[in-house]
Amino acid sequence: MSSRYKIMVIDDEFDILQVIRRYLEKWGFSVVTFSNPLLALQQFKDDPNAYSVVLLDIRMPELSGVALAAMMQKVKPDVKLIIMTAFEIFADDLKLSLPLIKSNNILRKPFKLVEICTAVKKQLQVTH
User: Fold this and answer.
1) Domain range for 93
2) Cα–Cα 20 to 30 A to 75, which of 52, 81, 89, 97?
3) Exposed e or buried b for every residue in 106-126, given b needs 16+ CB within 10 A?
């Protein structure tokens, strides 16, 4: 795996960010983490093509992950998103807010770290 793939990870829980970052870096990805979704959005707007995939939590205090994902899609309609959530999300409800999100782009917490890597590789269409 090459670090040519830059992954943005957004979650308001610092410990989760660090675990995900370390795991993805172990697999050769370049990872940028944000605990504040507003800062992440600004960074994304500044250079939307810098990120190969965005992983984001649904529930965050400043801005919901659904709202953040919708804003990112307005900036870059083909942005590759993976939603992380500890809550039950109904595919139909999510489809209304984010029509480009497929149910296999949703990771339910608690998840195994290998599931994150598998989801990222699937988004990037890489097999190694």
Assistant:
1) 6-124
2) 89
3) bbeeeeeeeebbebbbebeee
